[in-house]
Write a structure and sequence with these properties.
CATH architecture: Beta Barrel
Largest sheet: 5 strands, antiparallel
Distance between the termini: 59 Å
Strand content: 35-45%
CATH superfamily: predicted glycosyltransferase like domains
CATH class: Mainly Beta
Shape: extended
Strand order of the largest sheet: 1-2-5-4-3
Number of helices: 1
Length: about 120
């Protein structure tokens, strides 16, 4: 708009065409099951089947960071936020991809601990 003062600290430049970029966000999930090859999670944000994401196990399980591909995702219900808003609740199946030998060992140890019913923090 002509005559409107610039409010930004830096000038924005228009980008021609349809140049893609990627915005990453953290999605809190609930771990439902885990194996050496994948996991099933419950969450309120959409995960698209076929998409690849970074998946991080909680600190209590060693904070292992893996790459995972979404195999399937479906709506299983809704949940209410503390503000009373209703959100869709999804369950998704992920398969781990490109796992290194070191990650495989770490994941195997986590699965073994969980199979014994031990979910205490790793020290």
């Amino acid at each position: 708009m002509a005559g409107t003062p610039e409010r930004r600290n830096a000038i924005r430049i228009l980008v021609a065409g349809r140049l893609g970029a990627r915005a990453r966000a953290t999605l809190e999930v609930r771990l439902l099951d885990l194996s050496k090859s994948g996991t099933r999670i419950e969450h309120s944000g959409l995960l698209r089947p076929g998409a690849t994401y970074t998946f991080e196990l909680p600190p209590a399980l060693g904070s292992l960071v893996l790459t995972a591909k979404v195999v399937h995702s479906r709506v299983v219900g809704t949940e209410a936020t503390p503000e009373g808003e209703r959100l869709l609740l999804y369950q998704s199946g992920l398969t781990f991809v490109g796992i290194t030998a070191q990650q495989q060992v770490g994941l195997g140890a986590v699965v073994e601990r969980l199979s014994r019913g031990d979910s205490h923090p790793i020290v």
